[in-house]
Amino acid sequence: MNKIKIAQKWNFTDVKNLKLTNKMAPLSIVGSDGSEIELSGELSVAEQTEEFNFEDYISAKFSEGEFKLDLNEIPTRSKSRTDSQLLLTVPANIFMRIALENLPLSVKNMQNKMRIDSENAPLSISMCDGDKHVESINGPVRIMDSKGSLYAKLGNGPFTAEQVGGAGIHIESVNGPLKLRQAAFTKVKIVTENGPIYYETQPIEGGDFSFSTENGIVHLALPLNFGFKLEAKSESGRVKSKLDAEVIKDDNVFRVEHIYEGEEPTKIKIDTENGLIKLSSDSQLDINFIKDRLEQLKETLKNVNTPEELEKVTAKLNKMTDYLHRSAQSINEEKIKNKVTDAINKMKSMVMDFNLDETKNVVIGKIENLSSEIYDGIREGLKNAKAEFDDLRYEHLNKDSLKDYIHKVVNSPLIKPYLGAEKKKAEKEKIAEHSRLKILEMLEKGKITSEEAEKLLKAINKE
Q1: For range 94-115, the mean pLDDT
Q2: What is 285-396's CATH topology?
């Protein structure tokens, strides 16, 4: 197998669009501070290739603001395709339209709007700001730490996203699982036929969420101290809620509300035919949200130059401090709670008395110190709450980890006869024990209920 290095550059004065088709090798695209579009990497070509002419496999054309780049298939063995790797650097603010078949694509550190169409190729997008349009038939899609509106149309491949946010998100899927964590979208519409939906949101005021599935599970994780009005419809399914709010049932409609005075609640609609609806809360979302909002406040104050701008910042601060006060109430230790509350009040007072004629750096420096006190205090309070939970678990189970306890129970020779182990052959028993362990681990993580776990364990025993 021959190794060939590639290094090509294109420099056009007015590129508005990049139209890319890749059939050559796995590709990574990263942002560039310059004005050039650059392609580099290493290709593994078949040994029988005597001369490799790049012009036979790379087509580059520029016309009326659009740069069209086609990376065509090279003569190689199928196994060696993964030995090749390409890197494309693209300047910011160029709209990218990319077509893929089976070769993986990674997009990082971009300040660009993009549309990506894939058949089966794995797609990864991270640290990218700008609206995104993704369509994939079967390939897995993963988006991390990115901002901008998102539209995704999927077939059967899985979709995962974490630390994403923007004006809106719209996802349509057939069967693939959909999992979003630490999402911050005001408008949410997710529709799937049979795939499970897991959506974990940051606190969004006045949001509009819609989730729809025929048979898949819908699991919605809401942050603490979050105002919402939820309406869920399920023909044959049921609602399982761990929220600190009453679930009111009227025929096939379930309603849950958590309203705070002075805030516009987020409207949530869930519609399923047969799927289970799960509602839970995750305190970890609070701390991430708080950190982001405190950083935004500090940056906004740096750019305040008029009384009107200061008035808008003050209005936002009032809503944020109300949320911070509610978060502080989750802290059990009075000493930490009082320290956090005092820092919140000082910060609010400082912004209210903000003088445009004073040195901004001094005020912002004090705000930064108070923000650190608030963030660290709430984080410490949540950490201590977790420690209390771990102590209770140790006291009742006499083990540091429930997983260790599960391992001990499953591997105990005393329990095996009751699980039907002696009736199995050695190989089947090994598989059965592995299945039991997986079921119990799923139960520990809350992915299934105790009733579901019991049914699954009984099914294993009858085999």
Answers
A1: 96
A2: Four Helix Bundle (Hemerythrin (Met), subunit A) (1.20.120)
